[in-house]
Write a structure and sequence with these properties.
about 15% helix; binds zinc ion
């Protein structure tokens, strides 16, 4: 080894998929700040710090990747003049791990040595190998895109458009991959407006399509809408562009969302970002605090909805002071390590349901409910009839069952699923309760509504 003053030390090691996950810092391993997703490409980054008497020279960095029979070594030789700078990728050594090299069987070690003399400067870990602790998404994140015809417009969901959505989501979502397919179009016989009118019923219609299809429990539905000739034709300013409920883990009936699908140019990522945001709600995420959204997650750890740690988009580092979390209303957006961790937990859970017996009762019996929509301005109306695998979670709300004379015949407690971007939400009223003898109307709070 060279002496301390003229040697080069490894001061930090991190892995990037979309977010920086620190493995070691200041010579010690640290607890990872977010999951490293198995079977997904990753960038390994090595920070350097020369001693005070360092003479600029070529340095060889060697990454040993232990991965059973597919083990290999990657080597980079480059001149090192100064300490690494956080914001500059080129000031660090970087290596790409192939998707197949990101698994719980993977071990890593990094050795720095003099590029000409091959004398060693430093090694991480000091001895042995570092076991890469990965997390499996148990398969891809699966989305069915539903083209929704409304206001006389049907969105285009051709192959290039689908791959735009797919590519974006596969960058910012914590899964091994994202797989999308396109459903037959559905048509709405009511209008959508920028102030939110009609959006509640459009979301109800999307959920009803998913219920009717009864797909595997891990499949999310996303209704794509173009309610105008262009985004500006639909919306002059400050409009609703997407809607979802903030779905609880077991709310199979709410595994979906809707949003606009306008593309003003090739560089336009607004619709993809809207999808990542809305499906984030469907995956249980509340808002991060930027742009004055409602329902802010009180546990969001960073001020101003910042992403907290440096992001990586596959080419560039993304500054944590500039980028805001995808669950904010601010731009530019990326994903924080916090949201990455939260969405991963949900994807891992729903993918784990596939093939599991507990998601369907043995008889295959489904709970029949009628959606009661509490609209944005307080008006209540009936929505779709649905057959659910199980009762949704949500805030318990009392619905009174009334007879013709207005006498209360009974009370049912039903779950309330609130909207992310509008006042109101959905109540799921059991059809059995509405069919009880003598029941002609229901009352929720101050609102009375005739049984359909
Ligand atoms: Zn939102």
């Amino acid at each position: 080894m060279a002496t301390d003053v003229d040697r080069l030390r490894i001061v930090k090691i991190a892995v990037y998929q979309a977010v920086e996950v620190t493995l070691a810092q200041g010579g010690a391993d640290v607890a990872p700040n977010a999951p490293i997703i198995a079977d997904r490409e990753a960038l390994v980054r090595v920070w350097l710090e020369p001693g005070v008497a360092w003479q600029p020279r070529e340095v060889e960095a060697e990454l040993a990747i232990g991965n059973g029979t597919a083990s290999r070594t990657a080597t980079v030789v480059t001149p090192v003049n100064a300490a690494s700078v956080d914001a500059e990728l080129a000031s660090t050594f970087t290596f790409t791990l192939r998707a197949s090299e990101v698994s719980d069987a993977t071990t890593l070690s990094v050795t720095l040595s003099d590029g000409a003399l091959h004398t060693p400067f430093d090694r991480w870990p000091e001895r042995g190998e570092h076991s890469l602790n990965t997390s499996s998404s148990q398969g891809p994140f699966t989305v069915t895109l539903v083209p929704v015809t409304v206001n006389g417009y049907t969105p285009v969901l051709d192959t290039p458009t689908v791959s735009r959505f797919e590519r974006y989501l596969s960058h910012v979502y914590p899964a091994s991959s994202v797989v999308m397919s396109v459903h037959a179009p559905i048509s709405l016989d009511f209008a959508l407006a920028g102030d939110g009118t009609g959006w509640d019923d459009a979301l109800d219609a999307l959920y009803a399509v998913r219920d009717a299809d009864a797909p595997a429990p891990n499949v999310y539905y996303y209704g794509v809408l173009t309610p105008g000739a262009s985004l500006t034709d639909y919306c002059a300013s400050d409009c609703v562009v997407g809607l979802s409920t903030v779905a609880a883990r077991s709310d199979e009936g709410y595994r979906g969302a809707i949003g606009t699908g306008f593309f003003e140019s090739n560089a336009d990522t607004f619709s993809q970002e809207t999808m990542a945001h809305e499906l984030g709600h469907a995956l249980g995420r509340e808002h991060a605090p930027c742009g004055h959204p409602d329902s802010v997650d009180p546990r969001y750890p960073y001020p101003y909805g910042q992403i907290g740690v440096r992001g990586y988009d596959g080419r560039n580092l993304l500054d944590p002071d500039d980028y805001k979390d995808e669950m904010t209303y601010c731009v530019p957006v990326w994903i924080s390590d916090y949201t990455w961790t939260g969405i991963f937990g949900r994807i891992n859970y729903v993918n784990g349901l596939v093939g599991s017996q507990r998601v369907r009762s043995a008889s295959g019996a489904r709970l029949r409910v009628r959606t009661l929509t509490l609209g944005p301005s307080g008006q209540a109306h009936w929505g779709s009839e649905r057959a659910l695998a199980r009762a949704p979670d949500g805030e318990p709300t009392n619905v009174e069952l009334l007879d013709r004379a207005g006498a209360v015949l009974g009370v049912v407690t039903v779950p309330f699923a609130k909207f992310d971007h509008l006042t109101g939400g959905f109540l799921s009223v059991p059809s059995e309760a509405l069919a009880r003898a003598g029941v002609t109307s229901v009352r929720v709070g101050a609102t009375t509504l005739a049984v359909p």
